[in-house]
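Quick log. Single chain, no ligands specified.
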Amino acid sequence: MLPDEPRQSEDRSSEGGQPGCYRHPRTATGISCTRCERPICPQCMVAAAVGFQCPECVGGGHAGARRATTRFGGALTLDGGLVTRVLVGANAVVWVLAAYVLNPRLGEVWSLASAGRSHLGGPYGVADGPAQWYRLLTATFLHLQWWHIGMNMLVLFWLGPPLEEALGRLRFLALYLLAGLGGSTFAFLVAGDWMNSVGASGAIFGLIGATVVMQLRDRGPLAPALAFLVFNLVVTFSRPGIDWRAHIGGLVIGGLTALGLMYAPRERRGLVQGLTVAGAVAVEAAMLLSGMALYGA
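-> predicted structure:
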């Protein structure tokens, strides 16, 4: 039987008595981790603000570090307007399809159309049941006139990036979609017995409301945001053919959602923001079901 080979010490190398790297004991080193003071070789050392650290200490330090976020808890990104531009692009593509390629088919299928059971051929559209509820969302991306999409997208391109940068992409997208659905469901609740509506105006009014809330939260200049809101409300109620119900529904849902997202306390931010989104969805579901009770089969 061969004699056992002598074991190499885990903290000593055979060269000059220097300590061996704690991960590579045969590699002598004169460098120690500045946090745990274990010897580390050039292969293992990670540059730190002061000296070098071992991989375990670096990993432990990153695990305990707080993730950088936006002011209201969103993931920090270099491009604060990506979702805004995607939404503008999506609306533009749908407008081209509806106005020039699939005209009038897409407008008929995607519009916020509804006729109650009291009308001949009803219920129709949203009032016809869950298979038609997709119109509540698709109508918010549908425009038939160039001036309609032009005005809505101009406001979106103006108000979107600051809100997206403050909230983060996911929260901003949730705000936009909830405001759009809020406008659609409120319009259906009020006028679902006979209606046909299109446009992103509900979502846009939600962004206006969110901008007012953000100015209040940041103690910024409030007068411009309020003046812009009042101007759009005057236009809403003074010109014929504008669905004021979608505007008001989007404004209320967007403003209330922004309140929950922006005023959530830091220590319970995730919980409060999640409950805010869930609450907005619940309110919209209640409006939809109430409308179905009034107009549906």
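The mean pLDDT is 90.
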